[in-house]
Amino acid sequence: MARIRPFKALRPKNDKVNEVNSPPYDVVSKDEALEIVKRNPYSFLKVIKPEIMNCSDKVLPYPELAKQAAKNLKDLIDNKVLAKEKENCLYIYQQRNGNYQRNGIVACLSVHDYVKKVIKDHEKVRVLTWQERVQHINETKAHTGCAMVIYQDNSYIEKLVKKEMIEKNIIYDFISDDGIRNCCWKINKTKTIEAFREAFNDIENLYIADGHHRVSAAVEVAKMEHRKKKDNNNIEFDDNEYAYFPAVLIPQNQIEILGYHRLIKDLEEFYPNSFLSKLEEHFYIEKINSNKPYLPSQKGEFGMNLDGQWFKVFISEKILKETEDIINKLDVSILQNWVLNPLLGIKNPQKSKKIDFIGGKYALQRLEEEIQLGANIAFTLFPTSIEEIIAVSNNNQIMPPKSTWFEPKLRSGIFVHLCE
Predict the structure, then answer these.
(1) Higher pLDDT, 166 or 419
(2) 42, exposed or middle or buried, with CB in 10 Å at 0-12, 13-18, 19+?
(3) I need a surface site. Which of 103, 173, 219, 251 has the fewest CB within 10 A?
(4) Could you tell me which of 239, 76, 220, 38 has the C-alpha nearest to residue 136?
(5) How many C-beta atoms surround the C-beta of residue 316 within 10 A?
């Protein structure tokens, strides 16, 4: 049973949302963020990426940056750019781009449900990033970003959502700098909120799509607050705001996943022809005569650019027969286990300096640019499916790093959950 909870969101004044909303902290570089803030001094990047405010050459430790984030958040509140809702609400958050549309429910979820595996994850968090998120929550006393969470399709919830998407309830309608139209509606009627909560009682599990570090950090801070009570016999979390975190809940059939591609900078001891020969021992390879950049059209194949030439690479029956585990059957795992590790010496892709990861709708263009600059190999992957993510999560397993790229990204700064 999944529990959702309304909350008093800290959010932009209706006429300020265009200035406040920003990309997530982890999809823009410091230089890109600085350019955005120069154009827009109210950008929420000041809160979620506080290092951009450091003008000195000295690298500040993150505890100091977290204090700067808290100050920047307070400034937005004091300047009446952000205001706290007066009543507990749910929200609908819609994102549209051409024919694609998804409708999410903005609500708080329970830390206890995460610990009890009602809310399931599929990704291992990086310790340093996790520690920074913990410090960020502790200093700001807020969850400044929403996790993207999936629920399995439910026609009744879909009807409830559509019923609320009427003109009089709309609070935001803007096009963000990524070209996505973002619309939000407020739900403040007690009866309607209870209808949503009861509907989610029939949902057995929720699945984190994007935002594992945010969620894991929220859980740790809740544990820290709980330990302050010095009641080690009570395993239940206190019913305060620290025990909840904000999320956008999206039905499974509205999730769009793009491929997350690999860029290799070092061929090890191989020349291109010898690498190709080694690869042919386990894969079928087809040269692309047009030499146009290639995105795989189905599971079980890769695109590969080797020394400027594009190929289609097909996974052999031999590999599939030797692969039983659900994780090892993933295309991203087969690439790692049969190519990157044994042939190119990339044992830990998260730590290796030989590899970069490129995702998003402009990924092919970026790969081509890197190839022109001298990258040795690029691999393009077919997107991991939502069914694979759910299967891995239900099996309480962890997917390989950089397996999924969800798009569009949720905008930051629209809904903030205050812990105090």
Answers:
(1) 419
(2) buried
(3) 173
(4) 220
(5) 17
Output the CA–CA distances (angstroms, integers) from residue 204 to 36, 148, 150, 153, 358, in the order listed. 41, 17, 12, 12, 34
313 half-sphere exposure, CB direction, 13 A CA radius: 26
Prior bond to 408 cis, omega within 30? Answer: yes
Spatial CA neighbour of 97 closest among 238, 233, 250, 256? 256
- Closest by Cα among 206, 4, 2, 178 to 92: 4
Instruction: Give the distance from CA 220 to its chain's centroid.
Output: 19
For residue range 177-205, what is the model confidence (pLDDT) as tens digits?
A: 999 999 999 999 999 999 999 999 999 99
Say if pTM beats, i.e. exceeds, 0.85. yes
CB distance 382 to 298 below 8 Å: yes
What is the chain's mean pLDDT, rounded? 92
Residue 216: both structure tokens together = 């894991």
Residue 122 contacts residue 206 (beta carbons within 8 Å): no
CA count, 13 A, side-chain hemisphere, 183? 15
Nearest of 192, 183, 205, 190 to residue 160 by alpha carbon = 192
Identify the pLDDT of residue 166.
82
* The two three-digit tokens of residue 74, written as one number: 């307070």
Q: What are phi and psi of 73, to 5 degrees?
A: -65, -45
For residue 252, which of 113, 158, 382, 183 has the smallest C-alpha distance?
A: 158
Q: How far apart are CA 398 and CA 260, in angstroms?
A: 16
Query: Which H or E run contains 92?
Result: strand 90-97
Number of residues that this document lists for the chain: 420
Tell me the CB-side half-sphere exposure of residue 326, using CA atoms within 13 A.
16
Query: Tokens 């950049």, residue?
Result: 293
The percent of residues in the chain predicted with pLDDT above 90, rounded, is: 76
Q: What is the DSSP string of 319-371?
A: HHHH--STTTTSHHHHHIIIIITTTT--S-TTT-SSEEEEESTTHHHHHHHHH
User: What would the pLDDT profile of 367-384 be if each residue is shown by its tens digit?
Assistant: 999 988 888 899 999 999
Any idea where the domains of the chain sit in the sequence? 4-16+82-255+407-418, 260-382
Contact 176, 21 (CB under 8 A): yes
Q: For residue 207, give the nearest of 109, 132, 319 by alpha carbon.
A: 109
What amino acid occupies position 139?
A: E
Q: How far apart are CA 3 and CA 113, in angstroms?
A: 8
CB 381 within 8 A of CB 305: no
